């Protein structure tokens, strides 16, 4: 089975069989209801797993897909259990052999191969964490050097993978033949494995940096930066957040690279060009418009399959969906209205996330969220639901109430994800600015009196603070500097950030020279 490079508009013609056309769909098909019109499963529901993957895999080939190489670095069982055959079919690559030289995470290596536990395991984990942020020598931490040597082959694959322009990670479920799709239960087996890969790349970068191998160190760091961007362009909010986290791992290590005395102005300028040429970040509005929408509509189908019985997500929504008169509501609810209401909500959420102005976007999202919360109160109000049931034509009213209630459960904390994206964008901009500062200092022997002095020779334009729209705070010193963004709270916390006093600080700072690492 191969659905690669199939436009969504051609899905029915290329995927639906003659039997599909003979099936009676369980819901009216259309852009405003089911969003896609096929393929249908054996029960007459949309197979959203196939539909979503057909769209995500457009223009994807085994040669341009970073994940087609990454999975070869991770192996056929990244999280311990074998991946379904469908995963490899969507990637259009052979099933991987069970045994091979696959990536071994630091924690797994420490426990299974070194036999560490308790305080010794904590000490190893702390040493590995420190080794991603400061140069280190193999003679000082031999187990880390041995771990990196064990991972030479998967790391080489990873470096090649991150040079590719696309990232497609199928969300296949472990459904049996004849079962409907269940995207919420779809596997994302490589996502956390990519974090382990990021730690390995940055650990090796800091080892190479200590050895004076700046080109090799930067190759590892750039691969980690690109890995974060690629993963962040995945189909789900989880991938967006993990991509941001990987980017932060790369940023922390890159600051140690900047602080190395052998760095030249030419090298700093070239690194800046590499960062400026990075893959574009994922667009959260597009994730909502396509993937999150299909997952929500798929969830709705599965709720309808289960009817008024137990929820289809292994009890995950039982408490939330324990609304009054559940059986009676499900007998009269208008499912067409449910689908149309949910589609309209996804459209509106995508529009909100597309607003460029942060303050305007935040207010629009708060209004969106408040509306859903108010509807949810009505849906769990027994007197309100009884009045609707006793009224004329309750189906459409219940359909809208149910759709908005479900939407409030399936799209929580979108604002938090957007804020994480904003932090990631600002942090990346800060790092580029730091490389421009390094190039200036290596050229002139000093840091500039003001950031504006960097343009246009070292950087085309100095970015403003994303969170305030005003210039970044910049405090040069005789041998270093501090500059920072105000962060999400929009307040000047003096350059202090998460975990520092005063609590609640969330500035996004860069200091040179680097301060010593804090000990746990």
Can you lay out the helices and strands and say which pair or pack?
Elements: H1 11-15, H2 18-22, H3 48-56, H4 66-74, H5 85-91, H6 106-113, H7 118-131, H8 142-150, H9 152-161, H10 191-210, H11 214-232, H12 237-258, H13 265-276, H14 284-306, H15 326-332, H16 335-353, H17 358-379, H18 382-390, H19 394-410, H20 414-444, E1 473-476, E2 481-485, E3 508-512
Antiparallel strand pairs: 1-2, 2-3
Region (Disordered): 495-520
Protein name: Type II secretion system protein GspG C-terminal domain-containing protein
Signal peptide: 1-18
Summarize the structure.
With 520 residues, this protein is mostly helical.
Number of strands: 3
Q: Any idea what the shape is? A: globular
Oligomer: single chain
The helix count comes to 20
Whole-number average pLDDT?
A: 90
Report the uncertain regions: 1-18, 312-316
List the secondary-structure elements in sequence, H or E. Answer: HHHHHHHHHHHHHHHHHHHHEEE
Q: Report strand %.
A: under 5%
Main beta sheet: 3 strands, antiparallel
Radius of gyration: 26 Å
Decide which structural class fits the backbone: mainly alpha
Distance between the termini: 51 Å
Read across the widest sheet, the strand sequence of neighbours is 1-2-3
Percentage of helical residues?
Answer: 40-55%
């Amino acid at each position: 089975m191969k659905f690669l490079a199939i436009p969504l508009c051609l899905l029915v013609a290329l995927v639906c069989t003659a039997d599909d056309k003979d099936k009676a769909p369980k819901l009216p098909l259309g852009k405003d209801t089911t969003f896609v019109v096929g393929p249908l499963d054996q029960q007459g529901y949309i197979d959203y797993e196939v539909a979503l993957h057909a769209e995500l895999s457009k223009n994807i080939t085994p040669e341009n897909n970073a994940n087609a190489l990454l999975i070869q670095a991770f192996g056929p069982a990244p999280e311990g259990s074998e991946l379904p055959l469908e995963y490899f079919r969507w990637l259009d690559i052979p099933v991987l052999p069970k045994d091979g030289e696959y990536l071994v995470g630091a924690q797994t290596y420490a426990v299974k191969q070194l036999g560490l536990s308790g305080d010794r395991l904590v000490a190893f984990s702390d040493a590995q964490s420190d080794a991603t942020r400061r140069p280190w020598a193999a003679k000082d931490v031999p187990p880390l050097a041995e771990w990196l040597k064990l991972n030479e082959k998967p790391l080489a694959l990873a470096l090649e993978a991150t040079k590719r322009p696309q990232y497609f990670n199928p969300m296949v479920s472990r459904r049996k033949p004849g079962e409907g799709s269940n995207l919420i239960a779809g596997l994302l087996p490589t996502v956390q494995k990519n974090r382990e890969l990021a730690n390995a790349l940055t650990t090796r970068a800091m080892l190479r940096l200590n050895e004076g191998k700046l080109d090799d160190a930067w190759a590892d760091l750039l691969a980690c930066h690109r890995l974060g961007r690629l993963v962040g362009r995945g189909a789900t909010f989880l991938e967006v957040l993990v991509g941001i986290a990987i980017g932060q791992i790369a940023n922390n290590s890159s600051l140690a690279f900047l602080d190395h005395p052998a760095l030249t102005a030419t090298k700093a300028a070239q690194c800046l060009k590499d960062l400026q040429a990075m893959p574009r970040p994922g667009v959260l509005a597009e994730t909502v418009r396509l993937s999150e929408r299909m997952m929500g509509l798929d969830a709705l189908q599965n709720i309808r399959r289960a009817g008024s019985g137990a929820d289809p997500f292994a009890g995950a929504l039982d408490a939330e969906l324990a609304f009054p008169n559940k059986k009676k509501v499900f007998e009269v609810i208008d499912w067409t209205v449910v689908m149309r209401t949910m589609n309209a909500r996804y459209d509106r959420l995508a529009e909100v996330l597309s607003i460029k102005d942060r303050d305007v976007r935040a207010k629009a999202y708060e209004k969106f969220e408040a509306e859903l919360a108010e509807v949810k109160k009505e849906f769990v109000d027994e007197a309100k639901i009884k009045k609707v049931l006793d009224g004329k034509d309750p189906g459409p009213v219940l359909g809208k109430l149910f759709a908005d209630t479900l939407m409030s459960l399936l799209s929580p904390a979108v604002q938090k994800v957007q804020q994480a994206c904003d932090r990631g964008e600002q942090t990346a901009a800060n790092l580029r600015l730091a490389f421009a500062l390094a190039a200036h200092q290596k050229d002139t022997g000093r840091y500039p009196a003001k950031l504006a002095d960097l343009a246009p020779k070292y950087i085309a334009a100095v970015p403003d603070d994303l969170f305030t729209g005003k210039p970044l705070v910049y405090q040069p010193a005789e041998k270093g500097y501090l500059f920072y963004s105000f962060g999400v709270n929009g307040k000047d916390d003096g350059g202090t950030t998460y975990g520092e006093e005063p609590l609640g600080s969330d500035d996004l700072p860069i200091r040179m020279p680097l301060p010593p690492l804090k000990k746990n």
